Amino acid sequence: MSRETSKIIPVLLSGGTGTRLWPLSREAYPKQFLPLVDHETLLQQAALRTLDRAQFGSLIVVANADHRFVIAEQLRTFARPTPRIVLEPFGRNTAPAAAVAALLAEADDPDALILLMPADHVISDAEAFLAAVAAGEPAARNGSLVLFGIQPANAATGYGYIQKGDVLESAPSTYSVRQFVEKPDQPTAERYLESGDFLWNSGIFLLPARRFLDELQIHAPAVLAAARAAVANSSRDMDFLRLDGDAFSASPSISIDYAVFEKSANCAVVPTSMPWTDVGSYSALWDIGEKDAAGNVGHGDVFLQDSRNCYVRSEGPLVATLGVDDLVVVATSDVVLVVPKSRDQDIKQIVEHLKAKGKSAATQTVLVHRPWGFYQSVHSGDRFQVKQITVNPGGKLSLQKHHHRAEHWVVVHGTAQVTRDDEKFLVYENQSVFLPLGCVHRLENPGLVPLKLIEVQSGSYLGEDDIVRLEDIYARA
After folding, report:
1. What is the arrangement of strands in the sheet containing 441-444, beginning at the earlier edge strand?
2. Taking residues 188-197, what's their average pLDDT?
3. 2-34 core/surface letters (b: 16 or more CB in 10 A; e: else)
4. Do 379 and 309 sit in the same domain of this protein?
5. 3-state secondary structure at position 210
6. Which of 124, 208, 281, 347 is the most buried (most CB within 10 A)?
């Protein structure tokens, strides 16, 4: 494949945990999987930016192995052809993930360009994004490591900055990079804004795969060696590519900026005014949200009276405010957060404290996602628990049994196919089935609509570890 016809390979990096958006975003279900600003999730929006565009090849997603089924389900109806989902056994920051993506792209096409994108950013103008990529492509084809710098709208202190240098002769919309600057203090940020030479670092990169790997060999050889070994010893796991854990663990945990860009003399930057935010705080969501006359942004069942410049969101209960200013109020089914907007960058301190206390709410959502769908515990007491279960069309729970509990299923929507020991039968809406302690059973959704049921568990122990899986199409232990 020639340089002129090589596709740009879009790569989504989906390893973040988004603790500054807790309790909406949690380690088990971080912000990229949430519809924070639209009907689609941030992951879906990122995938859609390159979908059905002639210049792009098939999507690669590098992700936490624990999130594999969520990603596959969210992209199932959006990304065509089926994306390649690469599973990291644990997080090692962005440099190893980028190295893995570059190795896979180069193996398919030595002249490939990779477009590295975080899966949790908001870019509300896809055409402006594509125009920026097109502007950076000539420099990338010519061997430069291309970054995209956002024209600052204000003297923000929460972003890294790129100082642009001279215009490149071979690419008139692209500049050399004079320096990278960490998040500045307020006076410094104001000087940057006034100078006009500094751009916000968007964390989006257009890289010639082979050249990027050469730069890694020079500046971060341990990262490249670990990535090569992890890919070479990878294994197929259903539709996923699982990196070798022992090899991947040898990589330093380092960002792509520190590993390569801040050391390379071969970087270039494309200035762009596309509407962009990394959604790194509730203030960022307030900035891009639709505001009422008093400057409030509200989502869900909320009522705001005599309140100004607040971000108020409910994922369940009614939330009302009266006579407050500049607050973030977020309510989920298990957590209520109240914090001044000026302190929203410190929310991660709450998460760290709760984790140290062993509070499950620090990392887990009430809604528990599984490869077949999800469930939520709605009530529990002495020797009983009630769950609401949703099984996706075609979803199939493992063939299993329990040593300590019996279960009663009541179908409220859709049709269930139930295996109970030697029986196999359908259960329709408003019908129920009893599963005695110790019986071998399985639940499936043979229909085209989600199957919803109420499960009542009773017994001496109701923990999730009282599941003996005998057969599982998702290859879980």
Report:
1. 423-427, 416-420, 441-444, 399-401, 468-471
2. 93
3. eeeebbbbbbbbbbbbbbbbbbbbbbbbbbbbb
4. no
5. helix
6. 208
Question: Is the CB of residue 50 less than 8 Å from the CB of residue 81?
Answer: no
Please name the residue that has the structure tokens 């070798």: 244
Tokens of 230: 């992890």
One-letter amino acid at 56 equals F
Q: What is the CATH number of the domain that holds 44?
A: 3.90.550.10
Residues 78, 208: one domain? yes
Alpha-carbon gap, residue 164 to 168, rounded angstroms:
11
* Region class of 452: left (phi > 0), else alpha (psi between -120 and 50), else beta: beta
| 385/458 Cα distance (integer angstroms) | 7
Residue for token digits 């020991």? 421
Q: Where a domain ends, among 356, 384, 407?
A: 356
Which of 249, 277, 305 delimits the end of a domain? 277
Query: What value does the mean pLDDT of the chain take?
Result: 94
Cis bond leading into 221, ω under 30°?
no
- pLDDT, tens digit (0-9, with 9 covering 90-100), for 211-247: 999 999 999 999 999 999 999 999 998 889 999 999 9
Please compute Rg for the chain using Cα positions.
25
The CATH code of the domain that includes 451 is: 2.60.120.10
pLDDT given for residue 4 in this prediction = 52
Do both 352 and 371 map to the same domain? no
**How large is the average pLDDT for residues 250-278?**
96
Q: Are residues 150 and 220 in the same domain?
A: yes
Which pLDDT does position 343 carry in this prediction?
95
- C-beta atoms surrounding 79 within 10 Å: 23
Provide the strand spans (E) within 144-290: 145-150, 161-168, 171-181, 198-208, 235-237, 240-242, 267-272, 276-277
Cα dist from 316 to 16, 111, 313, 412, 472, whole Å: 25, 50, 9, 21, 33
From the list 416, 415, 419, 384, the residue with the least C-alpha distance to 400 is 419
Would you state the pLDDT for residue 302? 98
Buried/exposed 262-272: b ≥16 CB within 10 Å, e otherwise? eebebbbbbbb
Token digits for 43? Answer: 């992951």
Which pLDDT score, from 0 to 100, does residue 18 have? Answer: 80
Domain that holds residue 320: 293-356
Tracing tokens 């050249």 back to the chain, one arrives at 211
Beta-carbon contacts of residue 380 (< 8 Å; ≥ 6 apart)? 386, 462
- The domain tally of the chain equals 3
CB 317 within 8 A of CB 301: yes
